[in-house]
Write a structure and sequence with these properties.
Radius of gyration: 11 Å
Number of strands: 6
Largest sheet: 3 strands, parallel
Oligomer: single chain
Strand content: 25-35%
Number of helices: 1
Length: 70
């Protein structure tokens, strides 16, 4: 995949794993609204060309969520 992340990437509330690693995604990571990613266990962004600050909304996801950024 190439390009930027759509702000709607976090809309599927019942998704458990979102592996976006190893692509050519660029730009910033959009905010996650309250209630989105409620079932998320893994969120992988590593191996991309993302920039900017990690949204604090991602940092407040459920404690058992694995988030890999590098």
């Amino acid at each position: 995949l190439t390009g930027t992340l759509s702000p709607s990437y976090s809309n599927p509330a019942n998704i458990e794993d979102l592996w976006l690693d190893g692509n050519r995604l660029s730009g910033t990571i959009p905010l996650v609204e309250e209630g989105e990613f409620s079932m998320l266990e893994e969120l992988l962004f590593n191996g991309n060309e993302l920039s900017g600050v990690m949204p604090s909304s991602i940092c407040t996801l459920v404690n058992d969520t694995l988030i890999r950024l590098w």
